[in-house]
Structure formats: C-alpha cells, structure tokens
C-alpha cells in the first residue's frame, strides 16, 4: 500500500500566477489545477528473529543468555520465572530426581528460583550456549570447573543473603531466589560480556501450518524418572498451537505471575548416563548425539540430536530440524531405558 501525500501549492486554487496582457491592455488570469497527489512507497518495518525462540519482533534481542539451575523437587514447585524461559532443559541430577536448566535470552524475569546447585554437565550446556550461569551450590566436579573459570557465573554459596535471597515461604534448600537486577549486577561485578556473542544453530518454521507432521498426537507422557513427581504429561491445544504440561496431575505454572507454561516444541533426547558415586550423581554424555523425538504442531517425528558447536540441536540427516517459533522444553533421558519406554503416546486415528 502506498501513502498519498498532498502537496499544497499556496493559493493554488485562486492565486493568479501569471498575468498576460491582452490587446486592450487588460490582464488575464491563468488558474492552475487542484492539489497534486504524489505516491511514495510505505516505509518497510525491520524485524529481528530471536535466536532461541525464532519469534519475530521489531526489537533486536541482544542480551547475553542466562542459564539458571532451578530446583525441581516437589517442595520447590511451582517455580518462579520458568514461563519466561526460551528453553528449559530437564536432566537427572541424583537418582530419579531431575533439575531444570532455564535459558533466558528474550526476557529476564524479575524473580527466578528456587535456585539449586551445579553439576558438571550443567556447566557443559552453559559453556556451549556461552551463557552466564546461575546456581546455588555445586558438586565436587562442578566446583573444580567453576574454580578454573570454565564459565562466567554467579553462585549463591558466595552470595547467600546478598545477591541471592531466601524466601520465608519455603525451607532450605528449596528457597533460594535471585532477581534480574542482581543477575545483571553480578555480570557487572564479574566484568563479563553482557550482550550475546554466539548465535545458536537453530532453525524455525515461518508458520504453524508449515510445521504439521505426518503422525498426529494430541497428548504424550515423558518419564524422566520412575517416580510420579518426575513424569510429565503434555496436552496439545490446537487453538493456540501450544502444549501445556502437568506433573502428577498438577499443571505447570509460574509462581511469579500465575501463568501456565506454554510450549510450542517438546524434544526428548536420549544419551548415555552413568552413575558415578554413592550419592547417585550422574555422568551424562552431551557430546555424542543420539536418537530423539520431536513434538510440535500436534504431531510427532523421530529425529536425532547433535552437539553443534557446543549447542544441543535437533537434526535430521545432519541438518537442523525446524522448530515452531516459541518456547521449547528439552528432556534429556538415559539411552539404557530406550525412547520407547520413556515416551508414550497414541497416534490419532489408531
């Protein structure tokens, strides 16, 4: 569409611009035509694609990613800030219990938590994303990496009661929180980069219709552990094109804003796990890639995952699989159990 701009020539309708003399010495007036219309092209709107969600906006997202370890114990739920996370990774910590790694880049919520302790493979993910890492506590292996400067970070063990605050509503270790202001202050104090410098190898569809998969599924279950408190059930809403998540019958919501977590993609990556000590701590292979499942747009597809320049990426034939623009939840589960036993669903029409 073009804008029409009227250019008014002052006095155009009545002003005498030229005076001609007749034989009789009388002057003649020459009137001009009406207002002239000139068509100019409409200004183009420049949009930017958010690197981890694929969402288009007129504002460029330049914040450095923040990766926070969030407590996923039943006593830590509901968590704060997770509805704003671009990506949530769910991984085993000890035994059948999981923890969440919430990646924030599009926006940084006012409050995040409860924050929990680091594991070495959490740091591997943070390193690959070039994210500023937030945790409260650490395993021995994670501590060694943090002390060696493996990632830029802030930890509640050094800032409990200052940058990290304890909530009176819950008991330790399920009550450590950090604000967005204190994360930014920690970055300033550490003199680290605060703008994104590494772009992920993620690919996105232009529309939801483009994302339709051959096999339709309206709900599915992912068993990160054998206990009901770590089994996730997802339901697809065709009207919004998003998935909701429930655990043990409870809808996953954000305590800070009472918003339910809505996802456009759910991924399940399988990889080798090994128990390494009497505490049940895990060694998780995040380098070798493996089999995977992709749920999006009410469908499911068998794919693979690959570590591409440190970032865990869904792929097919070595090429990044396109995701639906929006938020993503990634389950990382043991190869020993097999995807067919970890994930259950019934294709529609069967």
Describe what this molecule looks like in 3D.
- It is a single chain.
- The protein has 350 residues and is mainly β.
- The protein has two domains: 2-41, no CATH class; 56-345, YerB-like (YerB-like fold).
- It has five helices and 30 strands.
- Helix 1 (120-129) packs parallel to helix 2.
- The longest helix is centred in the middle third of the chain and has 11 residues, at 180-190.
Number of strands: 30
The value of Rg in angstroms is 28 Å
Fraction of residues in β-strands: 35-45%
Q: In the CATH scheme, what's the topology name of the largest domain?
A: YerB-like fold
- What count of helical segments does DSSP give? 5
Distance between the termini: 48 Å
Tally of domains: 2
The largest sheet is:
12 strands, mixed
Give the CATH H-level superfamily of the largest domain. Answer: YerB-like
What is the helix fraction of residues, given as a range?
Answer: 10-25%
Helical/strand content category:
mainly beta
CATH top level label of the largest domain: Alpha Beta
If classified by CATH, what would the architecture of the largest domain be?
3-Layer(bba) Sandwich
Give me the oligomer status: single chain
Runs with pLDDT <50, length 5+?
1-30
What characteristic shape results from the CA principal axes? Answer: globular
Give me some keywords for this one:
single chain, 350 residues, mainly beta, YerB-like fold, 2 domains, twelve-stranded mixed β-sheet, five-stranded antiparallel β-sheet, 37% strand, globular
Short description:
By secondary structure, this protein is mainly beta.
